[in-house]
Design a protein that fits this description.
single chain, alpha+beta, Flavocytochrome C3, Chain A, domain 1, 2 domains, 8-stranded mixed beta sheet, 30% helix, 19% strand
């Protein structure tokens, strides 16, 4: 029998397979539309699958259970202040209003989320920030519901999100273990027992049955997609958009080695990520120095193809000089650089430049960390790379990058090739400084100063540990400041940090319904854009954990309503008329 030719017409064509793209296709199907998802790579999930899976949802349905209160007024004001005029007010309002409805929809399709009551917004000093509750974490997902075939289609998680390279861990457990809470040891023992006793599943695959974080989110979305009549084409990169009389009416994708034109009767939704893996675009738009190798996103993906396709049909771009920054490190044999999200908050470490000087609050939000690296490098020429330095006490007690705590995995059990490539070690700070090319006097002075700050509990230079966000990933046993401990006991260690990212923030400019705008500010009919493919609704900021995935799925939710001719109205348009 000859293979059937795939259908060449769909109501909606979605480009990309991250969280925003998958939700758009699922929502379209639920609204009675035929949908096609085209994915450039051979795996589903994009950066979403290797993320923490958190979503930032103001006034969400789970906050009341934790005794927390929020309001659209307060959340709108907070995001507006963070965006600093680089995102339109109506788009900001559309997000903070609709995000909670989108989160309920996720639960309806089998992907429930719960709020994190003690995880603060990233800018506690900005009016409207809350000390917890807006960030939500996905409930653990049983991979058996997806099936082995479906699991094989999904991009695996980062090595850094696995315990002993095998077991997945959720955000609540990670916090408990990093903070060395009393229950942490028993929690780890329970996780290990669950994994190793699940012999029937382990016979089938090494991947954990228990999916957490971005794996739980994408696993749930992929399972929902597979239950619906939605076409999924892998290894089908976008080549161009098709237009007729100024309207986008389809796409040209490369499938099975052939250029294939596919018609979109209602709309094309771009959700194919940013351009962080495109070195030419990085050099054109981002601060120097810049290197696509530093990014923590999947190689071969997020090369800006969909952004360039939008520009080719007249779309306007915005925020192209910004990224979702995070410090990253190179770990040999891993396919991408590893991000350092939380370990830098633990007490007993510091980050220095080539002068051996601290230049930032190590526990602050990771985008600000990256920006501080660029700023200090511009001043001193020595902050790219920077060095995270810690002593023997830190090494024994805490994980960092690929290093498990020394009490569990001592130096003698580490790969010999890592010494001098992943980590550097010296019996004294002076010896360490010589190895890493850092000024020895400066390094010794910085360590002595940090040791004094640990005694007083006050970081007089950068205020580390002075707010609720910093303290979240501190060690509660460390007094008087959970983020400060002496750096005094040899041997001493260092690891190299680069100004990496988890994606670019700039992309096609859209309105509050995710419709793409042209250079004149008019809507390009038939073209929608979500996720890092679009310019961020958060402007230059990162208001809280989940500020990428939350908007990606929320604007996908709004886009389908608009495509159906039932755009979601603003509930509190009165807020737009108020003075800043």
């Amino acid at each position: 029998m000859q293979p059937q030719t795939p259908p060449q017409q769909f109501d909606v064509i979605v480009v990309g397979s991250g969280a925003g793209a998958l939700l758009a296709a699922i929502r379209a199907s639920d609204e009675g539309l035929t949908a096609l998802v085209v994915e450039k790579t051979n795996l589903v999930g994009g950066t979403s699958a290797i993320s923490g899976g958190g979503i930032w949802i103001p006034d969400n349905h789970d906050m009341a259970k934790a005794g927390l209160r929020d309001s659209i007024d307060v959340a709108f004001g907070y995001v507006k202040r963070c965006a600093k005029g680089l995102a339109s007010d109506d788009r900001v309002l559309a997000y903070v209003e609709t995000a909670r409805h989108m989160a309920r929809y996720l639960a309806q399709i089998g992907i429930p989320y719960r709020c994190m009551p003690h995880y603060s917004d990233y800018y506690p000093h900005v009016e409207g920030a809350l000390p917890g509750g807006r960030t939500m974490d996905p409930v653990d997902y049983n991979a058996a519901r997806l099936g082995l075939e479906g699991l094989g289609l999904m991009r695996p998680t980062n090595p850094g999100q696995l315990i002993f390279g095998r077991m997945q861990i959720n955000a609540f457990q990670a916090k408990s273990m990093l903070a060395r809470e009393r229950k942490a040891k028993w929690m780890l023992m329970g996780m290990m027992a669950r994994y190793f006793l699940d012999y029937p599943w382990r016979r089938k695959t090494r991947r954990d049955r228990r999916l957490t974080g971005g794996q739980a989110l994408v696993g749930g979305l992929l399972a929902a997609l597979r239950k619906r009549p939605i076409a999924l084409w892998l290894e089908a990169p976008l080549e161009s958009l098709v237009t007729e009389n100024g309207r986008v009416t389809g796409v040209v994708v490369r499938k099975d080695g052939q250029a294939l034109k596919v018609q979109a009767r209602r709309a094309v939704i771009l959700g194919a990520g940013g351009f962080e893996r495109n070195q030419q675009m990085r050099e054109q738009h981002l601060p120097r120095p810049t290197d696509q190798a530093w990014t923590a996103t999947p190689p071969g993906a997020n090369t800006g193809d969909a952004i360039q396709a939008g520009v080719a049909v007249g779309a306007r771009t915005h925020l192209m000089g910004l990224t979702w920054g995070v410090p990253t490190m190179d770990v040999p044999k891993e396919e991408k650089f590893r991000p350092l999200f939380v370990e830098r908050s633990l007490p007993g470490c510091m980050v220095v430049n080539a002068r051996g000087e601290r230049f930032l609050n190590e526990s602050g939000p990771y985008p600000e960390f990256q920006q501080a690296m660029f700023a200090n490098h511009a001043q001193t020429g020595g902050a790219i790379p920077a060095w995270i330095v810690f002593d023997a006490t830190f090494r024994a007690n805490y994980p960092i990058g690929p290093l498990m705590p020394g009490s569990a995995v001592p130096d003698s059990r580490l790969r010999k090739s890592w010494l001098g490539t992943v980590y550097w070690k010296g019996e004294t700070l002076q010896a360490l400084a010589a190895q890493i090319g850092v000024d020895a006097d400066g390094l010794q002075a910085s360590a002595a100063r940090m040791t004094e700050f640990a005694r007083t509990g006050i970081d007089a230079d950068f205020g580390r540990g002075g707010n609720v966000f910093d303290r979240y990933y501190g060690d509660a046993h460390c007094k008087p400041n959970p983020n400060l401990a002496p750096i005094a006991k040899g041997p001493f260690y260092a690891m190299k940090l680069h100004p990496g990212d988890i994606g670019t923030k700039g992309g096609l400019l859209t309105d509050r319904d995710a419709r793409v705008l042209d250079e004149a500010g008019s809507v390009i009919e038939g073209l929608y854009c979500v996720g890092n493919n679009a310019a961020s609704v958060m402007g230059p900021a990162y208001p809280g954990a989940g500020s990428t995935l939350g908007p990606a799925m929320t604007f996908a939710y709004r886009a389908i309503a608009a495509i159906q001719g039932r755009p979601i109205p603003l509930e509190r348009s009165d807020l737009l008329a108020r003075a800043p």
